[in-house]
Amino acid sequence: MVNNLQDTTTLSNGVKMPWFGLGVFKVEEGPELVNAVKFAIKHGYRSIDTAAIYQNEEGVGQAIREGIKEAGISREDLFVTSKVWNSDLGYEATLEAYETSLKKLGLDYLDLYLIHWPVEGKYKEAWRALETLYKEGRVKAIGVSNFHVHHLEDLMKEAEIKPMINQVEFHPRLTQKEIQTFCREQGIQMEAWSPLMQGQLLDQPVIKEIANKYNKSTAQVILRWDLQNGVVTIPKSTKEHRIIENADIFDFELTKAEMEQIDDLNQNHRVGPDPDNFDF
């Protein structure tokens, strides 16, 4: 059982990654972004997830610098993730994209760097670049995002280093059982984006009933379900009270029957694009 906000999972290369963190998808540069990241650090979050395409790496970097100073912690206490965008998938282009992200963030290294989407014909060269960065000690861990099982199998045929993370859309309407099983068997840690389905599940009756039993919010129940599935999760919020509430999930545990009830809500329904059919 994950017992607190600083608890970590050990990736296949021995690097420790927090089970829980803050995502900043679609949070624009500016005070709201900076404050959100600083709130998270202040209240004990140690994992921050951004991406080149979010166009907010500079603000995230500013918030990290200010946040760690105010919290009295060091850069090494944080786990920072970014992702290479589709237009930069290629060996040299990916290496350059990494340098650009580091510069914007104002960091010397990333804890985790991901290929954002499995663009056909391009992700293998990008992966070769990630392997180079990893071998050179420029990044602590490397992985992918939005990869189906067949993408992972294709990549792993030629990869020297197996992805350590696969970050995918994951919530009670999209339980991704095939990917969960494959990643578990291969020692790849699964991570959830959009764990609350962009708020669409907060009035779901089954989840509300479970939430009432534990005197928790539906969001807290879903996030607890994530962790008990062995899935790292990074809910997004910019409001301090919500950032605190999202992380208040370590004082209860769902029963096996409740986990199954939530699993049964699956409809293979996505709020984001299908990795087999996306156009950007």
Which key features would you list for this structure?
280 residues, alpha/beta, TIM Barrel, 8-stranded parallel sheet, 10 helices, oxidoreductase, NADP_OxRdtase_dom, AKR, Diketogulonate reductase-like aldo/keto reductase, oxidoreductase activity
Overview of this structure, please?
The mean pLDDT is 97. This protein has helices spanning 31-42, 57-71, 91-105, 123-135, 149-158, 177-186, 205-214, 218-228, 240-246, 256-263; strands spanning 8-10, 16-18, 22-23, 47-49, 79-84, 110-115, 139-145, 165-169, 189-193, 232-233. The relative contact order is 0.13. 40% of the residues lie in helices and 15% in strands. The protein is globular. The protein has 10 helices and 10 strands. The strands form 2 sheets. Strands 3-4-5-6-7-8-9-10 form an 8-stranded parallel β-sheet. It has a two-stranded antiparallel ribbon with strand order 1-2. The protein has a single domain (8-200, 232-239), classed as TIM Barrel (Alpha-Beta Barrel). The chain has 280 residues and is an alpha/beta fold. Helix 1 runs parallel beside helix 2, helix 3 crosses helix 4 (123-135) and helix 7 (205-214) packs across helix 8. Substrate binds at residue 116. Residues 31-266 form the NADP-dependent oxidoreductase domain. It comes from Neobacillus bataviensis.
